Amino acid sequence: MIRAVLASTLLVLTVPLAAQQSMPPAPFAYRQLDDPSQEAAAQDLMETLRCLKCQSQSIADSDAPMAGDMRHQVRVRIAAGDSPDTVRAWLMQRYGDYVSYKPAVSATTWPLFAIPLLIVLVAGAILVRRLRRKA
Amino acid sequence: MTWRLWVPLFAFALFLGLAAYQLTQPKDDFIESRMIGEALPYFELPPAMEGTPGVSSGTFADGQPRLLNIWASWCLPCIAEAPHLESLKEQGADIVGVAIRDRPEDVARFLAQHGNPYSRIGRDDLSEVQLAIGSSGVPETFVIDGRGVIRYQHIGDIRASDVPKLLAELEAAR
């Protein structure tokens, strides 16, 4: 029992071997901003920004060093008074739609918005026709 | 009139076919920078190791096109591309390095082991320059023209077959 506890404690204390983790994380990768409203804005934004290394996670969810560096950028920029939209635009200017989990209507994404609308319209039309036929 | 009954099934089959086709397509993991054609954002990086100067955006404004190599001593593919960077240098390319999240002693050890093709190496502990130019990993290599405009991006390690293309892009940026 004691041995198991010791072993699991040691396992927790194991230092990751990957050397890229050997550098300390960016100052604001894990530190929250002092101003709660700014931190809330930064947190909301980070949850809708895509990690570039671990491509199915937001930067808020990822422990990849690069995601930490991106969180640092987000917090520093929000703390400097940038709006979340400005920070998102700054990243999209560099990485395109890819980096944002908040889809915007554009030349390539409009079917995403148009198709559901079309399906609802068609379903509504069919429904109306059927109801009229019955009546 | 019974043909109408089959319409939803056909629509579904069509959707299934499309999904199956997309599943067989290779996944593109490369995220291209949108900064091609844009000027390098302003930055200043301290030297990544003793004896080699650091890098700033001003480095790229003297009329000579250069390669900007984003790398790190902890990055394994960087070992694979080291000989090809060396051959680019031998063929006249000026290569500026940016070391991501790296220690001076690790940088020095890596270069002693695998050769040093860099004229300057900047130390980017927060990936700031990497994020500013739209690079999403290491290694990546950018061609910067003599006015500091980003002209070309190579994602991943440079193979022997990539060397002529990079030299041609450097020539085109002249």
Properties at a glance:
A: 135 residues; mainly alpha; 0% strand; B: 174 residues; Glutaredoxin; 5-stranded mixed sheet; two-stranded antiparallel ribbon; 5 helices; 7 strands; 20% strand
Question: Helices and strands in order, then pairings?
Answer:
The complex is a heterodimer of chains A (135) and B (174).
Chain A (H helix, E strand, L loop, with lengths): L1 H12 L22 H11 L18 H15 L4 H12 L14 H25 L1
Chain B lengths: L2 H22 L19 E2 L9 E2 L9 E6 L4 H15 L4 E6 L3 H11 L3 E7 L3 H5 L7 E5 L5 E6 L7 H10 L2
Parallel strand pairs in B: 3-4, 4-5
Antiparallel strand pairs in B: 1-2, 3-6, 6-7
Would you kindly provide a written description of the structure presented here, covering whatever features stand out?
- The complex is a heterodimer of chains A (135) and B (174).
- Chain A has 135 residues and is mainly α.
- Chain A has five helices and no strands.
- The model of chain A has no long low-confidence stretch (mean pLDDT 87).
- With 174 residues, chain B is α/β, with parallel strands linked by helices.
- Chain B has one domain (36-172): Glutaredoxin (3-Layer(aba) Sandwich), CATH 3.40.30.10.
- The longest helix of chain B has 22 residues, at 3-24.
- The A-B interface holds A 18-20, 22-23, 26, 52-53, 55, 65-66, 69-70, 72-73, 91-96, 98-99 and B 29, 31-35, 72-75, 101-103, 106, 125-128, 130-134, 136-137.
Please provide the ordered H/E string of secondary-structure elements of chain B: HEEEHEHEHEEH
What is the CATH domain class of chain B? Answer: Alpha Beta
**Structural class estimated from helices and strands of chain A:** mainly alpha
Q: Describe the sheet with the most strands of chain A.
A: none
CATH superfamily of the largest domain in chain A: Cytochrome C biogenesis protein
Strand order of the largest sheet of chain B: 5-4-3-6-7
Main beta sheet of chain B: 5 strands, mixed
Q: What integer is the average pLDDT of chain A? A: 87
Instruction: Report the helical percentage of chain A.
Output: 55-70%
How is the quaternary structure best described? Answer: heterodimer
Q: Return residue spans of chain A where pLDDT drops below 50 for at least 5 consecutive residues.
A: none
Give the number of DSSP strands of chain B. Answer: 7
Strand content of chain B is 15-25%
